[in-house]
Amino acid sequence: MTVQQLEYVVALDSYRQFVLAAEKCHVTQPTLSMQLQKLEEELGVLLFDRTTKGVQPTAVGVKVVQQARQVLRQVQQLHEVVQLEKGELVGELRLGIIPTLAPYLVPLFLVALVEHYPQLRVQVEELQSAQIIQRLKDNQLDMGLLVTPLEDRQLREIPVLEEPFLGYISPAHPLYPHATITPADMGEPGLWLLQQGHCFRHQVLNICAPAPAATNRPFTYESGSIETLKELVRHNHGYTLVPELSVLQELDNPMVKRFAAPEPVREISLVVHRGFVRLPLLETLRAIILRQVPERLRAGRAKQKIRWR
């Protein structure tokens, strides 16, 4: 059994296609197939069922894949410990970030991070919270930027920001004249929401209880984008809630309304697996982010944190 064979097993489980798994491992498909067969012969079990619909791990294959991921994580950590001792930081950083944060935060840190670590290849992917959590556990991501707390013992959370929720209200809506808004105001009809699966949607619903069908709209629309929600308010009346980073350039816009104290916020953290060893990288990224945002957004201030699930 070799580390390379374990890499092939994990790749095949991730992509469920021999050709794609081989491509990701930078080998030919026959090479990957041969090495998998050798491992199966050594273990005396079938790890994957090959069907016309694709590749599926067998019952024992699922357990072997799980152990293989742990072994590969430990091998990776071994290399990273040596790099740190040498004062090097090379290789790859696989970072997952939620879609309601990515457009506003990634441009603030990406260039500065790669300039600070020129030998580091940074790969950023927009994913929903549940996907990031699972990929961190499966060693498919090194780091996540998402809303916390997660309350997961396998993961470590490093709070970075406490980002306020703000109202974004059409001039035609009854809430527009208000200087500030409260959660009680959110029962008004006309609330635009993100679609299912976004943690931001759950937080909005935890802040307020929107009126059910009491609207004059002959349609419904749930967006996957904060920017789309803002455009809907601008052109179709109603209101929505937005994170402050999405309106940093328009805080003087009268459509933007703050909540009365205590201001509801979402806690944003860098999240890594408990075994993550490249701590200088973690601290550097946190410092870069904090330099790029207003000081009032820094984590640790006494505000009302809204749970995301």
Automatic annotation (TrEMBL):
Boundaries of every HTH lysR-type domain copy: 1-58
Keywords on record: Activator, DNA-binding, Transcription, Transcription regulation
Entries under Pfam families matching the protein: HTH_1, LysR_substrate
Top-level taxon: Bacteria
PANTHER family: HYDROGEN PEROXIDE-INDUCIBLE GENES ACTIVATOR (PTHR30346:SF26), TRANSCRIPTIONAL DUAL REGULATOR HCAR-RELATED (PTHR30346)
Similarity field: Belongs to the LysR transcriptional regulatory family.
Protein name, as recorded: LysR substrate-binding domain-containing protein
Organism in which the protein naturally occurs: Hymenobacter endophyticus
